[in-house]
Amino acid sequence: MRFIKIIAVIILVLMGAYALSMYYFVDESKNFQIEKEVDYPVDKVFSQFNNLQNFTRWNNFFTSSQSIDIDYYTPYEGKGSAISYMDQKNDMDGEMFIRYENLNKTLRYQLFENKNENPTLVDVKFKPLSATKTKIIWYVHTPKLSVLKRVKNFWTEDRFADNIDKSMVNLKNVLGNKVEKDNQMASIKYDSLMVENEEDKLLLGINVSASNKKDALYKNIVMNYNKVYNFVTMDLGKKDDEFGYPVLLTDADNYKDKEVSYFLGIPLSKKIGVTDNNFSFRTINPTQNYIMYYKGTYAGRVKAIQQLIQKAKKDEMRYGDVRQTFIERPMEEQDVNMKLSLSVYK
């Protein structure tokens, strides 16, 4: 009995020392700020923060879990919008609200975690540094914690900063694809031959051989596009803003052949683990291209390809493959909207 009493006294002393150290040396709440810069205009950046459906697509807190369920409440954008979330596997839940909005300047979030009645308050300010660059500043105020729980404040800032670092990588990928698509749509001039320098791309897709009789090739392309799209969105969980327009790679003059071999892929920002052997990655190296935007029947693209080849021959340029970038998703019995690119070199 005496031994048990001694142990109990030691435990009480340690708990008392812990409580005193927490009380005198650890703040009951924390205030800190984090700054980041992104190479995109403020209006593009702000719309990823004030629309919570956009926000949860790139914020690492939500994307890092495969088991989290999120409910969105109207209005879905701006002041008054809200979400609730639950992750039974990781034993967490909470609610998040936008309490204040000053368009393209400031947002205030209120986050209630795990039934805590005291919220974390986060003010986010957006400062345009140029027409294409924005500074984002987070001002974070954590809820007050009881003496016994204050030890959490030792890692709160580091955890928050780590989440922002990972989120910024996701955000840049989302904005990169979105801005690229917007710019591409704005720059379209149909049936005009132009020169373009294309950066490298990483495609995830499928290798195919198909008949070139009548509409058989296009039907095959539509079918395989749906396979790749469903794999990327459903199996890999990617959202439309996280990848680029689908690209079909093929030999420049195989439109004459009875059978056509091609690679159809969707651009991704980085390689990820793929267990399905039907799909593979292919890298497109930086090239100079002769390009032409085309809208019409799929069979009608041949005339545009011939124009690109004739231009290359006239300029005494050698040429490689043809890339068919579908600006609108290919669908049966509908015209295509695409960019045709012929890689050229001396």
From TrEMBL:
<comment type="similarity">
    <text>Belongs to the AHA1 family.</text>
</comment>
<keyword id="KW-0472">Membrane</keyword>
<keyword id="KW-0812">Transmembrane</keyword>
<protein>
    <recommendedName>
        <fullName>Activator of Hsp90 ATPase homologue 1/2-like C-terminal domain-containing protein</fullName>
    </recommendedName>
</protein>
<feature type="domain" description="Activator of Hsp90 ATPase homologue 1/2-like C-terminal">
    <location>
        <begin position="39"/>
        <end position="174"/>
    </location>
</feature>
<keyword id="KW-1133">Transmembrane helix</keyword>
<dbReference type="InterPro" id="IPR013538">
    <property type="entry name" value="ASHA1/2-like_C"/>
</dbReference>
<dbReference type="InterPro" id="IPR023393">
    <property type="entry name" value="START-like_dom_sf"/>
</dbReference>
<feature type="transmembrane region" description="Helical">
    <location>
        <begin position="6"/>
        <end position="26"/>
    </location>
</feature>
<dbReference type="Pfam" id="PF08327">
    <property type="entry name" value="AHSA1"/>
</dbReference>
